[in-house]
């Protein structure tokens, strides 16, 4: 495992341009382990911290979507619970999947952030405006990212990325204020 690195010197500037955050699933939204029951059912654990971070990003005007090489009903269900419309599953070539989506939804690459953890994610991460990763990312991914969480995939890394984006864009304190009692701001 690599040590999380300091944010890229242009992180804040790059974050200002972001209008879409795309996430890998296994290893980013989950811990990357595949769990199967005796009957062959698959299980995944999603972190609730990540879910709130995604909702906060959406409230700040940044759309969030998923691009995953594997396809499961569990991911579709989690995406629905978070209100995500952009969900692309079962596409091992994630760059081709994103390129096809962009034909119908023109978004500049510098407006896209992608959070991944392993080599298949590099096809997008090395082309978009902001590459984010988890603490336990493959070293080749960590080296090519603009920001790396101190948290592992499935354990709040996405929330940390959302917080970093919100802070860089100046939205963090405004959104936090919605959760504070009115008298707490004076303390």
CATH H-tier superfamily: HAD superfamily/HAD-like
Helix content percent band: 25-40%
Distance between the terminal alpha carbons, to the nearest Å? 41 Å
Provide the spatial order of strands within the biggest beta sheet.
5-4-1-6-7-8
Protein model, in words:
With 187 residues, the chain is α/β, with parallel strands linked by helices. The chain has a single domain, classed as Rossmann fold (3-Layer(aba) Sandwich), CATH 3.40.50. Helices cover 37% and strands 14% of the residues. The strands form two sheets. Strands 5-4-1-6-7-8 form a six-stranded parallel sheet, sandwiched between helices. Helix 2 packs parallel to helix 7 (157-169). The chain is globular, with a radius of gyration of 16 Å. The N and C termini lie far apart (41 Å).
Lay out the secondary structure:
Layout: H1 11-16, E1 20-23, E2 35-36, E3 42-43, H2 48-59, E4 63-67, H3 73-82, E5 86-88, H4 94-104, E6 112-116, H5 119-125, E7 130-133, H6 139-143, E8 147-148, H7 157-169, H8 172-177
Parallel strand pairs: 1-4, 1-6, 4-5, 6-7, 7-8
Antiparallel strand pairs: 2-3
Helix pairs in contact: 2-7
């Amino acid at each position: 495992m690599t040590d999380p690195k300091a944010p890229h010197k242009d992180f804040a500037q790059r974050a200002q341009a972001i209008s879409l955050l795309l996430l890998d699933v296994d290893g980013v939204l989950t811990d990357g382990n595949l769990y199967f029951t005796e009957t062959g059912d698959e299980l995944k654990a999603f972190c609730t911290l990540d879910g709130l971070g995604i909702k906060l990003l959406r409230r700040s005007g940044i759309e969030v979507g998923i691009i995953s090489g594997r396809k499961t009903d569990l991911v579709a269900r989690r995406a629905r619970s978070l209100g995500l419309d952009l969900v692309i599953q079962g596409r091992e070539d994630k760059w081709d999947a994103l390129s096809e989506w962009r034909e119908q939804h023109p978004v500049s690459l510098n407006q896209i952030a992608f959070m991944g953890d392993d080599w298949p994610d590099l096809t997008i991460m090395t082309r978009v405006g902001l590459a984010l990763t988890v603490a336990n990312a493959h070293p080749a991914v960590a080296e090519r990212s603009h920001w790396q969480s101190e948290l592992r995939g499935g354990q709040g890394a996405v929330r940390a990325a959302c917080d970093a984006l919100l802070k860089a864009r100046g939205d963090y304190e405004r959104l936090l204020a919605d959760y504070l009692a009115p008298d707490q701001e004076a303390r």
